[in-house]
Amino acid sequence: MKQMIMHASGEMLQTAVLHDGRLFDYFVERAKGSGLVGNIYKGRVVNVLPGMQAAFVDIGIGKNAFLYIDDLLHPHLEKQPEHKPSIQDIVKAGQELIVQVMKEPLGGKGARVTTHFSLPGRWLVYMPIADYIGVSKKIASEQERIRLRDIGERLRKNEEGFIIRTAAEGENERSIEADVSEQRELWGAIAVKSVHSKAPAVLHYEAGLLRRVIRDNMKPDIDEVWIDDAATHAEAVALLKEMAPSLSERLRLYKLPASKALFDAYRVSEQIDSAFERKISLPSGGYLVWDKTEALTVIDVNTGKFIGTSDLEDTVFQTNMEAAAEIARLLRVRDVGGIVIIDFIDMELEHNRERVLHQLTEGIRPDHTKCTVVGWTRLGLVELTRKKARENSYANIRE
């Protein structure tokens, strides 16, 4: 049983995805003051720094945004110059520029912006000037990948590009074409608005959390969706009728009893609290210690009370396997970003090390956020990276 549980409270929407009652995804967003990623602005270049190959752009949100030279060059690698030019040859102070936020302001840093524009739809990501077709690597069938790539090539015009999403697997060309038309029309409206707007100005707001969650997560494998707010439920019904009408019957309105709130009824609050503890227990008796620094996240694996049933190597291996699966889950729930270092318990057998790494790699495969397992370091640690675009979910509700 796979369920989506949505709790709306004032200006905040929290969404949990449960597999057989266990928390595997968690999203939270305030209605105001957040969600810059995906927004498109007409900005003005304030300063160009040749030594950093970067520029700072005023997009009207207070702190100037950071634009690196790679995000100014053509999105298609084959169309970029053989030798990277100086950023001074591309932009000048005072120049007006259309940019899209790719990373929220984090800590003392301003937003990261790009000129590689992308507009996500239900079946694909529309890129108005990318000039290539990409297909999600999570689609395993080579035949299906070829079919979707062919559809993309037939549909695209001029310099357009698409990244066809995992959700498009098995989808017919008519639905994909409708998605392309919608995003193409949206980009046209943004282009027109840019002509009549004076920098700094917002040209496009990315969809709010409710639309994003339904667009990106509402798939046929979701058995039911519970929402505890009538207005949010009505909006979700309308969105599903637009994007996936066949799934709209799976929506349920949770009528709040006096005794138990929705997140409590499904043990979501309890699981969120335990997921963000520094010390996290494993079912066998082992545990994780989770520490966050400014540079990276460090996770230490310990056997704890687990003494196993045979020899030490087997005890250590079983603990590490359990830890790998739990870490993959918690990376999503905690929305960890950046460099992650995992100190698994030392194992003597190489094939055990390979199996633990495979368990971790398979565990992160369903993650919607790009996550790359680099592998074992010479010190016997596992290194991975996970893309970070937004502020930590838990921080948003603890402010």
TrEMBL record:
<dbReference type="Pfam" id="PF10150">
    <property type="entry name" value="RNase_E_G"/>
</dbReference>
<feature type="domain" description="S1 motif">
    <location>
        <begin position="38"/>
        <end position="103"/>
    </location>
</feature>
<protein>
    <submittedName>
        <fullName>Ribonuclease G</fullName>
        <ecNumber>3.1.26.-</ecNumber>
    </submittedName>
</protein>
<keyword id="KW-0378">Hydrolase</keyword>
<dbReference type="InterPro" id="IPR003029">
    <property type="entry name" value="S1_domain"/>
</dbReference>
<dbReference type="InterPro" id="IPR012340">
    <property type="entry name" value="NA-bd_OB-fold"/>
</dbReference>
<dbReference type="InterPro" id="IPR004659">
    <property type="entry name" value="RNase_E/G"/>
</dbReference>
<keyword id="KW-0460">Magnesium</keyword>
<keyword id="KW-0479">Metal-binding</keyword>
<keyword id="KW-0694">RNA-binding</keyword>
<dbReference type="GO" id="GO:0016787">
    <property type="term" value="F:hydrolase activity"/>
</dbReference>
<dbReference type="InterPro" id="IPR019307">
    <property type="entry name" value="RNA-bd_AU-1/RNase_E/G"/>
</dbReference>
